[in-house]
Write the structure tokens for this entry.
Amino acid sequence: MLTGRHWTKAMDKSEQQAYARSRAKELAATGEHIDWISVEHCLQREGHIEARDWLDDEILRRDINSICDQSRKEKPDA
């Protein structure tokens, strides 16, 4: 879980993007999301309206999907 610096408007764009990407992977690891789109929607509900732009990277999306798949397999009630 991200326990350090949380997203704030005081962060510059690169810091916001780095936070969102880390948070996306954290959300994927919960086993509660089926793919990067579900993670993106969760980020948007958390107030990160630029999540679509921040996650606009094919390799990152594949990584998030892989984390989602693996975490759902490991989750006892998945």
Summary: The two ends are 21 Å apart (CA to CA). The chain has four helices and no strands.
